[in-house]
Design goal:
globular, six-stranded mixed β-sheet, 399 residues, alpha/beta, eight-stranded mixed β-sheet, 14 strands
């Protein structure tokens, strides 16, 4: 089956067309600056030259129309007609408590997604726009919502309830939700394949490390604890997000800097993290380069990040009562040998040790643990688009 995977942002749209039989992408691309000047499309068909075009794209409907036209274009297309698309899988960031698995989009499901807008005001609205555009342009083609939060709905109550008056949960659903669930689910499944063991028997710690980062404890293929919380701001220090703070710091900074709610929200989400500590960049590649050139604050940012990841690994080892493997994925996890080494250093009590030669890899699926150590360290490139396609196929198989 051919599945079109759509990931809509407020002014961008990423897409892939995948063959779920071969599990290979037939084409992928990006529409940028939707509703802005200088908008355009970059399309990369498998086995053909890429296409780049700058043109006016006022909204998501026009963007998706452009994508569909390009997929059947005589020169750049990869299909004869749109009827070959069996379903569309949409990344939806927040499904709240209502959605513990992917769902066929119906009027009721759409209302549920809209009800979660308050929990993800920057993400769910463009996700909804993408679904509505596909419904308009592809009537009769099943649309499936695949939720970032769904994988974490298996967490026990003691892992997701905060130490607030319980009525805050009852009235406003304030709880830990977790994110990056599609990525954590994919790499956990791949880990079972690499280890040649049943997923149901494994205790895994999945480290999704990049500009946005989260760590998840996975027992028997199910999330039992994760670092992101009510919002993606909680947990690790990230590219521009502060991560965990003493909550009193927020009101203290607001008072000292005369900030209102919008300003402090921007400060914590967009001006903090490794950008704020290093003063260099939110991109770990830039920070690693600056640290190699002797920039002390850049090195401090890297040290803090590695410390935080190690702290979570230790905590989750306790939650799991042992670890069968540690997984590194996403941009930093897949590509930074130095960060992997820094995180794993000092975890010898867990039977963790990196082989320096094996660790000299970027973006490859490999075990980098030293010979004789009892806890494998796996580098597994994430593939959220494939996971979305497979989830979508599963939902529509019986229709």
């Amino acid at each position: 089956m051919y599945i079109l995977v759509i990931n809509c942002g407020s002014s961008s749209l990423k897409y892939q067309l995948l063959d779920t039989v071969t599990r290979n992408p037939l084409a992928k691309g990006l529409v940028e600056r939707i509703g802005m000047s200088g908008s355009g499309l970059t399309h990369r068909p498998a086995g053909k030259d890429a296409k780049a075009a700058v043109l006016e794209i006022p909204d998501h409907t026009v963007a998706i129309r452009l994508v569909l036209d390009t997929l059947v274009d005589p020169t750049y297309g990869v299909m004869q007609n749109l009827g070959q698309i069996g379903a569309v899988g949409h990344r939806v960031v927040h499904g709240g408590e209502e959605f513990a698995q992917s769902a066929l989009v119906t009027a009721e499901v759409m209302k549920g997604i809209e009800d979660c807008v308050e929990l993800a005001p920057l993400h769910n609205p463009p996700n909804i726009a993408g679904i509505k555009a596909c419904q308009k342009l592809m009537p009769g083609v099943p649309q499936v919502a695949v939720f970032d939060t769904a994988f974490h709905q298996t967490m026990p109550r003691e892992a997701y309830i905060y130490g607030l008056p319980y009525e805050m949960y009852e009235k406003y659903k304030i709880r830990r939700y977790g994110f990056h669930g599609t990525s954590h689910k994919y790499v956990s499944q791949r880990a079972a394949v690499l280890l040649q063991k049943p997923l149901a028997s494994l205790k895994l710690i999945s480290c999704h490390l990049g500009n946005g980062s989260s760590i998840t404890a996975v027992r028997g293929g199910k999330s039992v604890e994760t670092s992101m919380g009510f919002t993606p701001l909680e947990g690790l220090m990230m590219g521009t997000r502060s991560g965990n703070l003493d909550p009193a710091i927020v009101s203290y900074i607001m008072r000292k800097e005369n900030m209102d709610f919008e300003q402090i929200n921007d400060f914590l989400n967009k001006r903090s993290g490794v950008l704020g500590v290093s003063g260099v960049s939110s991109d770990f590649r830039d920070i690693e380069a600056a640290a190699q050139q002797g920039n002390g604050r850049a090195q401090l940012a890297l040290d803090i990040f590695a410390h935080d990841v190690k702290e979570y690994i230790g905590a989750y080892a306790a939650i799991l009562d042992g670890v069968d493997a540690i997984i590194f994925t996403a941009g930093l996890g897949e590509n930074s040998a130095g960060m992997r080494e820094a995180v794993c250093g000092g975890l010898s009590y867990m039977g963790v040790a990196v082989d320096p030669e094996k660790n000299k890899v970027r973006g490859e699926e490999v075990d980098i643990s030293a010979e004789g150590t009892r806890c494998p360290i796996l580098v597994i490139p994430t593939n959220e688009e494939l996971m979305i396609a497979l989830e979508t196929e599963e939902v529509v198989r019986g229709l």
